[in-house]
Every structure is written in structure tokens, then in C-alpha cells.
Amino acid sequence: MSPLTEIILIAMVTAVACALPGAFLVLRRVAMISDAITHTVLLGIVLAFFVVRDTTSPLLVMAAATAGVATVALIELLNQTGRVREDAAIGLVFPFLFSIAVILIAQYAGNVHLDVDAVLLGELAFAPLDRYTLGDIDLGPRALWLMSGILGMSLLLLILFYKELKLATFDAALAATLGFMPTALHYGLMSVVSLTAVGAFNAVGSVLVVALMVAPPAAAYLLTDRLSHMLALSAIFGALAAILGCAAAFVLDTSLAGAMAVVSGLIFGVAWVFAPERGLVAQALRHARQRQEFAQAMLLVHLLHHEATPQARVECHPSHLSEHLRWNAAFTTQILHRAEQHGLLERQRDLIVLTESGRRLAVQTLGGEG
């Protein structure tokens, strides 16, 4: 397998591993907790390093994941006081813990490979150089094995606890009533998020971890109302961001993590604009349709009010409707044409008159029984 193929595979597996738990973060409206976790895990790494003095020890991963869960606990502790909102609690906790880690590195581990920039930005291009070997057998990049294991664990937990996670996400009170322990599920989810962040940031950096945990699920959320479909779309969008981001980075000779983050944002942007129900285009079309329906109702009520009256020859004349309804001529013509197409009015000589259907709709609009 070529290094290029290995880089793309690592990026894809990492993206999918981040997108799956990220979907629940988006649904629970705590997406930016991923940002806090990806920064504060550095404190766990630093503290564990001071104990074992070995940057390759598995204890660093365990300590980092523990620091991520502790971050969530501190944020919720502040939030539960009722004096600090959750967004403010995040802004208080993670800079504090991350800054402690930075100071400890600068003061006591300056000659050790605990590079803050590498943690933030990562370097996916170097991931294939760190190989996993068994004797003389080269089994491939260590990052690919690590992220594949984390992805497999996430999928297994998702399959085992899908119903519980779904219920706890959408109705925590009902989940508690049924004995599903939503608090335990919440911290279990945050543990998975922490472990995923720890495994991913060595290759892609915390900035891309946040992008992959938020952007693909947010795009999927705009396209579907079913959790299973959202999870599938999140994984697809994450993998697509990895492939297109790597391709763009190779062509432009730029940062792989940066290109993947940009593509993730672009995927969300496309969904945000063109989503069938929640997209900007759909909302604009729905607003225009509602405006036309309201204008049509106003026209029918106007005609009903003046039909069979001495003022009908003026009030119901096409050339006077714009003046009386205060519409421009083009909009008046558009609404007249729309109402005619729906069989709500018709032209009789030089007047606009209601059909039976139009009269019935006008009465209903006014609150009558029609």
C-alpha cells in the first residue's frame, strides 16, 4: 500500500470515528464540548508523562481520556449551579485546563516531544512513518490500527446501546423513568468522545477533530429527521471530507488537516443552502409561497367584501386592484394569474369575480364555515 493510500485511509477512518459520536453531540446541543475535550486531554497526557516518563506508554491515552471526562464533569458542575450557562462554563474550563498543560510543558518538559502545535494542528502526512510491526512483519501505520480500533469500539457500543442513547438524547426524563440511567449514558458518550479525540489528534490535530465531530453531523442534521439516517450521512460526509480534503491538499500542496476542515465546512455550507426542508433555498421558496398564499387570501376577501355592491365596478376592476391592495402591478398580475389557475376567480367582461370555490375560501379565511 502506497503512503498516499495510507494517508487517505487514516483520514477516512478518523473522520468516520469522529462523526459518529459527533452526531449525538450535535443533537444534544453540546457540540463545542468536543473543542474543550480535544484541548484539555493535553493536561492528562502531561500529568501521565510526569509519572511514567515515557511518551509511548498506553497510560498517556488513559490519562488523556480521563482528563476529557473530567472536563465534562467540571463544565456540568458549573452549569448546574444555575449561575453560569453551559457555553460560558465551556469557555471557563477548557482554557484554564489547557493553559495549565501548556505551562507545565514549557516549564518542566521543554526538551520532550510534547509539541503543543502538533496537538492542535497534527500532521497527517507523517502518520504513515509511525509503523506497527510484529517481529519483521510490517502491519501498516500505527494510526490506522488505532483509529480502526476506536471506530470498531464506537460501532459496537452504538449497536449495543442504540435504543438507550436515542431515548436519552431526545427525552432524558423518560429515559430516567424507564431506568436507562441517562447520566451514565452521557458520561459513557463523553468517554467515547474523549478516547476518539485522544486517538485522532496525534495524527490530525484537535482542530480537525472538532471539525469532523461537528460539521458532518450538522450537515446530516439538515437533511434528515431520523437518527439512523443521520448517523449514516454523518459517516458518509466525514469520509467524503477526508477524500476531497486530501485530494485538495495534494493538489494545492497545503495542510492536509486544514484542507479537510475546509471541505467539512463546505459540505455543511452546501447542505445549509440546499437542504430540501431546512436549507436557505427551501426556506426562501417556502416564504415566497406563503407570501403568495396570504396575498391570494387578501384578494379573495377584498372581492368578497365588494361583490354585488355599487363599488364593485371600481373595487373589482383589474386596473384598480393594485391601488386598493397597495401592490405593484407585476405582483398583482402574478396573484391574479395564480388565483385563476386554482379556479378561485374568473374574469367577466371588465371585472374580476369570485367562483364558488373562491367565495367559499374567502369565507373560510374570514372565519366562517364556508
UniProtKB/TrEMBL annotation:
GO terms for cellular component: ATP-binding cassette (ABC) transporter complex
Pfam families assigned to the protein according to its UniProt record, in alphabetical order: ABC-3 (PF00950)
Entries under SUPFAM superfamilies matching the protein: ABC transporter involved in vitamin B12 uptake, BtuC (SSF81345), Winged helix' DNA-binding domain (SSF46785)
Cellular compartments annotated: Cell membrane
Topological type in the membrane: Multi-pass membrane protein
GO biological process: response to zinc ion; transmembrane transport
Main location: membrane
Keywords: Cell membrane, Membrane, Transmembrane, Transmembrane helix, Transport
Transmembrane residue ranges: 6-27, 36-53, 59-78, 90-110, 143-162, 174-197, 203-223, 230-250, 256-275
Family affiliation: Belongs to the ABC-3 integral membrane protein family.
The protein, known as: Transcriptional regulator, MarR family
Species for this entry: Roseiflexus castenholzii (strain DSM 13941 / HLO8)
